[in-house]
Amino acid sequence: MAATKSKAVYNVYRALSHGLSPLLYLHLHWRKLRGLEHPLRWPERLGRPSLPRPPGPLVWFHAVSLGEGMAAIPVIKQCIQRRPDLTILMTTTTSSAFEVIEKRLPTGVIHQFAPVDTPSAMDSFLGHWKPNAIVIMESELWPNLIMGASEKGITLALLNARVSTKSFKRWSGPLLLPLVSLMLSKFSLIVPLSNMQAIHFQLLHAPPFVINFSGDLKYVVEEFDISEGEIRSIEDLKVHLALRKVWMASSIHKGEEEVILGIHKVLMQQYPDVLTIIVPRHPQHGKEIAQQLWKDGHGVALRSRHDKLVGDTNLYVVDTLGELKHLYRLTPVAVIGGSFLPNLSGHNISEAAAAGCAVLTGPYVGHFSRMVLEMQRLNPLSVLQVSGKIELEDALKKLFSDANILEARRTAAKQVYHSLSTGIVGKVWSLLDFQILQRALS
């Protein structure tokens, strides 16, 4: 009875997604006109490949955006090292993720835009690439993808698996639970982020025997080659920052710049040489911040224009992608954005910790609350979570006025990061090899 209901709900979804296909096509066209889709490669979103499929076994890794995509890369590298006979196909959804990840992927990995979850797009994609196995990152549970893969006998894995509180409530309801439980039954491996996430997946009827633990892949910070020009640029910046009080606010969302600029104004009164680095989540937002600051008469340097830090420049706005890891090495203090407004849910703090920054974050951290608590449990000095603007202001003043406290927090963050990141990729590889690849490629 339950199986019949699950199948019926999926058939309704399939029919609806088929019926909405023309509207989705128009929506993609509209996004392309707004610059939100790749101007040339957007047809890949409709399942139309831009490259031929190489012969031999192929494993498809799928991640929606930059964070999930970067978390997948260490596993992809391990796959290539351990199984050089495999072709790896990587898909992402967002244009910003595509631009950065394209440069970070190992040679030989095929990178495409992910198809939208309509029957025709997904059938076309699976029919062309014919993956032996599919590795999905985090929470990309799309019915046509999963059911289409299952019908074709393709083995499925879900890494860094998580369900937000909001999604869990929605998926647990009588309408969606039959569909979600049907999808989860098709996976041969689910690697959740935490015990609580494992419980969530079990309550959503995931088979208990496919659930295994490895650690959070977002702790794994990869070393990437950068061009000589980028190296010179970073080194030049380092020289200009050497004798100044510096802090960075990274992954800032719209509205949060008001918090950061308000604190910058207060710090300027006590430390006239302070430099505030602002790295918005989206480059266009950075350009908008810089334009407004110029209009208001502030001394601002913009990263994309290669502006120099001269004279009264006390604000540095970074409107580029993929440089955070290197920029963290230039600042002793990193405030992680996406966490100061109630509608936000935090960002990854591990890159800042790996670079040896004193790490601070706001109160709204979503599923990253587990990462914050895990780091604080190992050493309370590794991450400081503040309640809002006033507490952040006080914390920054304390860090700037006491070199011992600043150094203690920087050391704690780096040590905890190394402790939590060790061995994760190896554990993931063992699970993937045993439960997915050996089964899919036998």
UniProtKB/TrEMBL annotation:
Q: Which GO terms describe its biological process?
A: lipid A biosynthetic process
List of catalytic residues: E68 (proton acceptor)
How is this protein annotated for GO cellular component? plasma membrane
Q: What class of enzyme is it?
A: transferase
The alphabetized UniProt keywords are:
Transferase
Q: Name one Pfam family in it.
A: Glycos_transf_N
Q: What is its EC number?
A: 2.4.99.12
Q: Where is the 3-deoxy-D-manno-octulosonic-acid transferase N-terminal domain?
A: 41-219
Q: Which InterPro entries match?
A: Glycos_transf_N, Glycos_transf_N_sf, Kdotransferase
Q: Output this protein's name.
A: lipid IVA 3-deoxy-D-manno-octulosonic acid transferase
Instruction: Please name the gene that encodes this protein.
Output: LOC110754215
